[in-house]
Design a protein that fits this description.
This protein has 166 residues and is of the alpha+beta class. Helix content is 19%, strand content 34%. The longest helix has 20 residues, at 45-64.
């Protein structure tokens, strides 16, 4: 009777096995960071030298030129005349002082009471992030040792100004 009982084989569940075992990836550790950087600089010395030369030339030009325009900003030295247009900002180099034209005012007597004579340029004058009201009518009033002096304007599109540090 024992021969009539079929043999039952117990198999382990089938698990997929890769054909070739995957090599274990070791995380790359840079034990000595500075020697690695030095090797990369030596390997790519022409590119590194070119980039460094461009930065040095730009820095020298920024320092040497009295007026440098980058996008909507014009960086100026103190007591240097620069031309800014509506929407453009003049920033004093090496300090946190900026001047922007808000609007041009053609009529200084809007309701019969005049507050000056001639056309006026309304500036947004900022020192260390603090906004001050300044116009071309008040060039001799210093604000924290700085003054904005209007040299020339067409009272429509541009003004030539000078930021004076007193």
């Amino acid at each position: 009777m024992e021969e009539d009982i079929p043999l039952v084989h117990k198999f382990e569940p089938f698990a997929h096995q890769p054909v070739e075992p995957e090599p274990k990836k070791k995380p790359k550790k840079i034990k000595n960071f500075f020697p690695w950087i030095w090797r990369q600089i030596k390997r790519h010395k022409i590119v590194v030298a070119s980039v460094a030369a461009v930065f040095v030339v730009l820095a020298v030009l920024f320092i040497a030129l009295p007026v440098v325009t980058i996008g909507q900003y014009t960086f100026v030295n103190a007591d240097t005349v620069t031309r800014i247009e509506l929407g453009q900002t003049a920033k004093l180099k090496y300090s946190n002082v900026s001047v922007k034209i808000n609007k041009f005012i053609a009529d200084v007597c809007p309701v019969g009471t005049c507050f000056g004579s001639g056309p006026v340029v309304d500036y947004e004058f900022q020192i260390d992030g603090q906004k001050y009201v300044d116009t071309s009518l008040t060039p001799n009033v210093p604000v924290y040792r700085f003054q904005v002096q209007t040299v020339k304007t067409d009272n429509k599109t541009y003004a030539e100004i000078k930021i004076i540090k007193s």
